[in-house]
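SAMPLE LOG
Freezer: B-3
Tube label: C17
Construct: single chain, 190 aa
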Amino acid sequence: MLIAFNKPYGVLCQFTDRSVPPRPTLAGFGLPAGVYAAGRLDHDSEGLLLLTDDGALAHRLTDPRHKLPKTYWVQVEGDPRPEQLQALREGVVLNDGPTRPAKVRRLDPAPRLWPRDPPVRYRKTVPDAWLELVISEGRNRQVRRMTAAVGLPTLRLVRVAIGRHRLATGQGPDAGWLPPGSWHRVDGAA
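STRUCTURE (predicted):
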């Protein structure tokens, strides 16, 4: 079984939390018993999380050797210059080594997404922009570290696709988003 879940902002990608007070986890969303996250999505990131009860499928989805592309829509602080976007395309050097090159493009107009709770802080004097980044790695907080490395701090990060699996509820331009906190079963092929 493979589940597509739209992980809300502030939810941990695990079913338990030993923090005091406990933080929201996957346990609060009525997911089927026996599934676990195939990969991670940071507490402060949103969007597509795949869950499965099939260990081999989880491995195919997460193993870096398979180079499964992950697509993110990233709201960044600042107005991206061509050289900043080119640096992302070539790969940037992080404290744990260079990244693979990313596919990157500016999203203009900004994508139509659900409101985030809490909302991103808006500042009249600081511009922001939306980028689409496609990477084939999954390092800890990688997209945030990549945009920061080129001088574009991340304000909001939404994963919209993993391989052929998308956060949309259907195909085509009229497809809507799976609402935050909602899930549905999908075909399991990676």
